[in-house]
Each structure stands twice: as structure tokens, then as C-alpha cells.
Amino acid sequence: MAQHDTPDSATGEAILERTLGPLADCWGRENGYLSIDGQPLSARLPQTPAYLYSRRCLDMAVATLRAALPESIGIHYAIKANPFPPVVRHLAGLVDGFDCASLDEMRLADEAAAPEQKRSIAGPAKSRAEHRYAIEAGITINAESVSELERIMVVARTSGRRARVALRVNPPFALKGSGMHMGGGARPFGIDCEVIPSLLDQRETLAEGGIDLVGLHLFAGSQSLDAEAIAAALDGWTELLREWQQTTGFTPAELIIGPGLGVAYHPGDQPLDLAALAPAFARLDEQLAALGQHGGIRIETRLEMGRFLVAGAGIYLTRVVDRKISRGTTYLLCDGGMHHHLALSGNLGAVLRRNWPVVAVDRLDDEADDTVDIAGPLCTPLDVLGKHQPLPSLAPGDWLGVLQSGAYGASASPTGFLSREPAIEYLI
Ligand SMILES: Cc1ncc(COP(=O)(O)O)c(C=O)c1O
Q: What is the pLDDT of residue 78?
């Protein structure tokens, strides 16, 4: 079932401002068109479909987050959100480390990162090759099960090296208001928190098996726009850490926390209020400093995230190929679709498909006086780019831009479906 957002007549300019807030200013705009160096981007870019990413947006997203964080809390970029190498290389100059989810992501992180930047790998069912690579490169392995610890020990033994390991914790709570729950209840991710104390008690045995237990990985969910819920999850984590310190004497030297910071994708979404979260970050810092003091070490804390850093820095560009009316509904049929942007079509974990912020890139000042359905080139009714979407009246050849497309776009889509060309990616 599709949910139709209430149509409004906002101009593209207003959609940019309300969706991206201060990041909107990172996108060039002249005389009602999105621009690159003063020229319409539709004239500068050779073709659609394409993803366009902005360095200035990446800079601003990281700077905005840093401004809300105590200095001692670092930022790790989760490459899974956007593994386009130029984006990862640019972020390497801005963040403190990387979270990887595969062998190729580890290789990319190694190529992009400076030696002092920490890297970790998370994910269930890691392969032997992934364990081996991580151990040899000194990458922290976030262990997702007790049996993974056993597998890591085997690889450490055969490679004659020690493994840096963090226990990924499946918390007793889920991050409320998050688009994707990844904690609480039974999960393939992480070790149930009730099992953690017994593992912490066995750290000497793990050390004998070649595992240096360097810390914990705490991730409860993603895509939350609710500052209170995120703050409550952070408090929940420190509560657990305090309890474990009391019962097992374990103080993590390294903590990787996924706060689940979300971005506003749909009409009516209120962007996350970072200023409202700043006190929670400060409290986290104070509480961890106290725990560290009690344990006689300094806890190195990193927040791990993807979309918050990269979503606003990406626009997906597609061109209208055909305009047709079917039994009263006007369709814009475009050259881009769900094979490039699965999330836009509502098929990447959404319960109900909602419209995204779509603008006519050369008509930013024009009122939306048309209401259209937007479809891609695939012969499936799933290939939806917009339903009852308000836009200026457009014709074949006109370009559309989908905002907030920098995360989970090209790499999270079925690019092989129907054997069509991939979208070209650019970083400007
Ligand atoms: C372990 C882990 N870290 C980080 C992320 C990134 O989440 P987000 O892009 O919402 O920040 C995910 C997303 O699923 C994840 O599973």
C-alpha cells in the first residue's frame, strides 16, 4: 500500500531549504537552476542518470556534527552508506576512522585512511578471509557471536598474529523512532547483552587464544530523527557499561557507538535537532570520563555513522524521457529508477513508500502547479520515483534531482536488474 503525502506547491528552492537546512547553501544556485561554477549543472554534466556528490556538503556535515560533540568524542564514517572511493577519500581528511562491512571496504579504508585512523569491521557471517585481513591490518573486529570469537582465535593462531576485537552488544532496548531497529529482541547482530558479562570475565582466556579485547561496539538502530530517543539510548549504554564495570571490572579502552542519527527524507520530517542532542553528548562524555577514571584508563570514544554525514551531500539526477497520461494520471517516465535508487522506490526497508524531495533542477523558482506520478524505465510496478508528486509542469528532456540521495543509493540498489547501465557518480 502506498501512502501519498499531502501535495504542496512549494518551489524547488523551498524544498531544498526545508530538506537540507544549512547544507542547502553548499549547492550552487543561480537564476533558478542548480549550478556548478555558475553554469546550470544540467549543462555541465554530460549525462543522466547520475549521482552528484558535493565536497562542501561533506565538509559542512562533519563540521556541524563536530560543533555538537565534545572534543574527546571522535567520528567514524560507516563506508556502507556510500563507498564511492572519491567520497571515502575526501572523508578521510575529515573523520577519525572508518567502519567497514566487507573485505573491499577494508581495502578501501586502508587505501584512504592515514595510519593513525582506526578502522573496524562489523557484520554477521564474516568470512575467514575477512578475519585474516582484519587481523593482519590491525583492524578491530566487532564480534557478533560467541562462535565468531572461536573462529577469530583459529585465524589468529594460524596467522601468528593477535586479533583486536570488540564485542558487539545486542542491547536490551531498541533505538526508539529509528527507521531500522538493529538491537533489542533476537537479532543476527551482536551478542545478547546478558551474555556479555561472562565473556568479559573470560578476557584472560580470550587473550591466551590470541584475542585482545580492546572494547565494545554499541549499535541499537539507525535513521532516528528523535533527539530524546537517541539521548535515552546513549544513557542506556552508559548504564550498561557502569553495571558491567561493577560486576566484571572491565573498562573498555575503545568504544564505538552508533547513535543512529537520521536525516529528513520525506515531507513532514523534522530534521534532527543536533543542538538538542549536544547536552546528551556532553553527558556521555562526562559519564565515560568517570568510568575511565574508575577503571584507570582513558576510554577512547567514537561515534559511528553513515547517512548523517553523506545523505545531504548527494543528488540523484534523472531526465524525463516521456510524459504520458493514463486514465487521468500524468506520468513522467524517466531514464533513472529503482535499479540505481532502491530506497527512493520504497523497497529498501520502508514499510510504506513515501515521497522524497524531488526538484526540477532548472526550475527551482517555479511553483509546483502540476501533480505527477514518476516512474523509471523498468517493467515492474515497483519502479516508482514519485506518487502524486507536486512539480512544475515538465516535458521530455527536463532534469529531476532527488535530494538526500548521498547515502544508500547506488551501492544499495540492484544495479544488475534488467542489465541496464549504472548511474555515473561524480564528486564536485
Ligand atoms: C554496524 C553499523 N554501523 C553503522 C551503520 C550506519 O548507519 P547510518 O548510515 O544510519 O548512520 C549501520 C547501518 O546499518 C550499521 O549496521
A: 98
